[in-house]
Amino acid sequence: MVDEYRELLRASLKSPDSALPCRLLARPQRSSPTYGSSSPTHIAQPGRRGRQGARCDCCNQTYRQMENSVRELNWTLAEVAELYDGASQLAEKYFYGYERLGYWYDDSDDASLEEGAKRLTRKVVDTLGLRGGENLLDAGCGLGAAAIHIVGEYGAQVTGVTISPVEAEKAQTRASELGVSDQARFEVADYHALPFPENHFDAAVAIESLFHAFDLEKALLELHRVLRPGGCVAVAEMAKTSDASQAKKAFPQAREPMTTESWIKEFESAGFVVEERIQSRRAYANTGKRHIDHYDKVSHLLVEEYGEEMTVAIRQGMQEAFQLGPDHLTYMILCARKQ
Fold first, then answer.
1. Looking at the structure, do residues 117 and 261 belong to the same domain, yes or no?
2. In what order do the strands lie in the sheet with 272-280?
């Protein structure tokens, strides 16, 4: 299944008859009465053929919009998927399944990487006022570590989506091993075209994932669509401290960093009301040292597994990501409500 998804992603911009997004988003109907009530635009129908090959007509329009946006920003869905397909083993084996920043109070704080990541997850989720039993979307869920943490600590029902088939598979395995697969479910999907009906989720999080959005407006409109009226989304991203910041994007498959003010304008344009904003120097300034120190401790194992050249290259990338300091970058958490 992983290989099939990957091939569909690779084909998405090469063939006018490719099966994306219909087959990528195809999944069995669930027993909940809410599922199955959506229009075919968002719930794909396996086996249905439109006039242009495997995609139905409604998804051809989505595909064209995605194709044009991707080409403008010079990366593809397949490239983002392959980035995280490759990074997932490293994150799972050496970083406790987290591919995100953490939170430490000062240099003397000796909390582990896992605890630091959990602290930051709490900071994001607490802006939502999430209640037990509520239905939460994790848009860009990675390996599912944060989603499973949210299930255990808040008692929510969490659906995680990722563009990486490897991540989705590993996340579901993790949930099954921890006995929470009835509360945490993961699937391959694109947050520009979510396979869920309108007003389905009580809340949503997008933690360090929207910087991969090739069409940020479309991604935010999709989050707005799937949230119920009154539902909130909490987004966490690195943000430029000002327009004069020298910060650049961390990956080729990423957007250039934006200021918090620019993020707020994007949310307001999508119909949200921003109710809370947090800018944390601690999350950015204190994460870099911890991640690099931990990386150095396991580097001998990484050399054995990945080779010296790749191990050195990854460390250099980590160092470059944190070298500017908090005068140029900060960690932003926004909570916005759908009216």
1. yes
2. 184-188, 157-162, 135-139, 201-207, 227-240, 329-338, 272-280
